[in-house]
Design brief:
Helix content: 40-55%
Number of helices: 9
Shape: globular
CATH architecture: Alpha-Beta Complex
CATH topology: Spore Coat Polysaccharide Biosynthesis Protein SpsA, Chain A
CATH superfamily: Spore Coat Polysaccharide Biosynthesis Protein SpsA, Chain A
Distance between the termini: 40 Å
Structural class: alpha/beta
Strand content: 15-25%
Bound molecules: guanosine-5'-triphosphate, magnesium ion
Length: about 250
């Protein structure tokens, strides 16, 4: 095992989970190896086998804490809850990543370095997919990218859907208090747009993403797509309403 890179406990690793009981233990083990940071798992009404795994994980390390929500309300709710808990625990930033093993945990120190370099920036994972990615995900992603580029009149947000991000809590908490961005998968793209509008520098960090064979997806092709479409319609309308001020946004923020 390689020694975990020691970092200040002001950066927390946040993992939202729903029913990814077969992959979460490996993800947490690799996180503990990669960085010396608190790990907060927000479980959102997962099934009994996942709960069983989670109950054991807290015993693996004092750095791991599981917060349980019931019933299931969505990834957006879990992320918002995690932001608040991290802030209450003294964090300034969270790095959030998925429980399904798709993200490259070895890149965590790169996210930490990006926070160190620019603490007020939103650092978005820019996925580098291999052949395991389902085609439909690539097409859906491309649609989301174009909508977000229109909403922001910029290419600042490269990939609005990647669940691997470093988020400054000074940026996130006011946004989640004042904005209604939705409770499920639409939260992350909405958050990226509104953070850009709020003037946050947005950086994109390349990171490998691979789909494991037989992996469980909670992305509901119909309902989550409709939720996103509704949010995008709302954001586009707002963007049009504020077009004059957006066009005069200082170039260095783009
Ligand atoms: N807390 C919580 N986490 C969720 C919920 N839905 C999904 N997640 C977690 O969010 C992350 C991403 O969920 P996935 O099911 O992989 O969905 P996805 O990444 O959008 O879809 P794929 O591209 O098919 O993997 C994982 O860590 C899930 O466990 C939810 O309702 N509540
Ligand atoms: Mg996934």
């Amino acid at each position: 095992m390689t020694a975990a890179r020691e970092i200040d406990a002001t950066i927390w690793i946040l993992i939202p989970i729903f029913n990814h009981g077969t992959t979460i233990a490996g993800v947490v083990r690799r996180v503990l190896e990669a960085v010396d940071a608190p790990v907060l798992i927000v479980d959102d009404g997962s099934d009994a086998p996942t709960r069983e795994v989670l109950s054991k994980l807290e015993a693996v390390s004092t750095r791991v804490r599981v917060h349980r929500l019931e019933p299931n309300r969505g990834k957006g709710v879990a992320l918002r809850t995690g932001f608040r808990l991290a802030r209450d625990g003294g964090a300034t930033h969270v790095i959030h990543l998925d429980a399904d093993g798709q993200h490259e945990i070895g890149d965590l120190p790169r996210f930490v370095a990006a926070i160190d370099a620019e603490p007020n920036a939103l650092i978005l994972g820019k996925p580098v997919f291999d052949a395991s990615v389902p085609r439909v995900r690539l097409y859906g992603r491309q649609f989301s990218r174009v909508v977000v580029w229109l909403c922001t009149l910029s290419f600042a947000v490269d990939d609005p859907l990647c669940g691997y991000r470093a988020v400054p809590l000074d940026l996130a908490l006011p946004i989640v208090e004042r904005e209604t961005l939705g409770d499920r998968m639409q939260f992350e793209p909405g958050f990226a747009v509104v953070a850009y509008w709020a003037g946050a520098p947005v950086r994109n960090l390349e990171t490998r993403v691979r789909y494991l064979p037989g992996g469980l997806s909670n992305f509901d092709g119909l309902r989550d797509t409709l939720r996103m479409a509704r949010l995008y319609a709302r954001l586009l309308a707002r963007s049009l309403a504020h077009l004059p001020s957006r066009l005069t946004r200082p170039a260095e923020l783009a």
